[in-house]
Amino acid sequence: MITGTMTYLHLGLTNTFLTDWAVNFLTALVTVIPLGLTMMVLLTKRAKSYYPMTRRVCH
Fold first, then answer.
1. What does each C-alpha distance from 52 to 36, 37, 39, 46, 59 come to in angstroms?
2. What does each of the 59 residues of the chain score in pLDDT, given as a tens digit?
3. 24 in Cβ contact with 16 (< 8 Å)
């Protein structure tokens, strides 16, 4: 959704919109998502090292 919106705002509705969007989506898929997941894991480990006595809350 975000990549489609940003592509539309940047380029407008052109004949190559779907191709441009697909390229942007695939770029985000292989770069931003793995980077975000890696950062989430690293920050979680760091937070646990700062607060080792916290309990995990289960709902």
1. 24, 22, 19, 10, 20
2. 887 888 888 888 888 888 988 988 898 899 988 999 999 999 999 988 887 776 666 65
3. no
